[in-house]
Amino acid sequence: MTVSDEEVRAETDYRDRARGYLERAVAHVESGDNHRLVYAALEARMAIESLTYDLVRLYRGDVAPSVLSTWQPAKLFTELLAADPDADSGLEIHIAGE
Confidence band (pLDDT; 50, 70, 90) for 5? Predict the structure, then answer.
């Protein structure tokens, strides 16, 4: 039995991945090493991409299945905007310790 890319993505915990990326981004920033800021930015971008893929689950019936099989968040976000024009509304994210 083979598992499709869509099924794998449906079971992936993107929020958990995003947390991991964000934790690493914060660690890079807090290191005080300016050379690690590039890595912090990359980890932050990957967190945002993971959250985008998590969000698409809410719109599964409104986006083309082919979009779910690509790792191109820009295409995915275009589909999200077609399904919900407010998908790119302003959002403020606060990070606090537990």
Answer: low
Q: What is the DSSP string of 46-69?
A: HHHHHHHHHHHGGGGGGS-HHHHT
State the CB neighbour count (10 A cutoff) for residue 26: 14
Tokens of 9: 């993505």
Structure tokens at 92: 């403020």
Output the pTM of the full model: 0.68
User: What single DSSP character describes residue 12?
Assistant: S
Longest dimension (CA), the chain: 49
pLDDT at 46 over 90: yes
Q: Burial, 91: exposed, middle or buried (Cβ in 10 Å; 0-12, 13-18, 19+)?
A: exposed
Distance CA 64, CA 52 (A): 15
The DSSP secondary-structure symbol of 88 reads T
Higher pLDDT pick, 36 / 89: 36
The residue behind tokens 């019936």 is 61
Specify the pLDDT at position 2.
46
